[in-house]
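Moderator note: this is an archived Q&A kept for reference. The question asked for a predicted structure of one protein chain; the sequence and the answer are reproduced below.
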Amino acid sequence: MDPRAALLVGTLALLAGAVQAQRPPWEASLKDGGRLQVDPTTMRPIVQTPQGTTVQLWDGVHRLEDGTTVTVRSGVVVPTQQMLEPPAPVPAPAEEPSHCLVLLRKTCGLHDECESQESCGHAQQLLQMERDEHAEHRGSAIGPAGWLETTRQCEQALADEEFFKACNLSQRGSVASPCERLVDKVCGRAGACDGAPACGPAHQLLEGEYGERAASPYPDALTATSGQCRLALEDQEFFLPCDR
């Protein structure tokens, strides 16, 4: 073999070994009890018994709790496809927007279409006060039992439908959402088909999508109702296109 090719093969083998070594042990529960751990480098099986001791799994075929089997030969596990697959990434916990940010979106609109509304100005002030309080208390543990005072005010304001009214205008972003496209399809751009049976339901879906986006940390992202509107856009029986 060419020396350069041999060097490349050896380097790739070392890299593969390094990546494999970084992987955590493969784990599964045995049907007869105990937790099986397989070292990704040596493929040696270790069992942690219910009593807390660890023993090496003997040669043979062993059934797991999910009904699959693991085979051990000469003290080494015969790898399965499941073992060779990289572990699934753990999803990060969903970030929740603050009550004051939700209040701002409710009264001002997603794109500040109701910024002239008096309650929008109050929501903007509350959001800035909340941010200032967070900066002042940075590093301290503030949970649901110890919310900032402004956060509490915003939570109460969200329930006040008399003054902190929801913005009743809907200014579109640079890209129309699925529910906006659905309303355009069945109601018409200028509302030419507002009397169509599907127009009312389409507007209800748009309101639901709007509310979900307002309460999301990523207001331009698609929501569950966006998915419903995508399906409705393909519907050729009820959500018929406006013909005027």
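Archived answer notes: The beta strands are 26-29, 35-38, 45-48, 54-56, 60-63, 69-73, 76-77.
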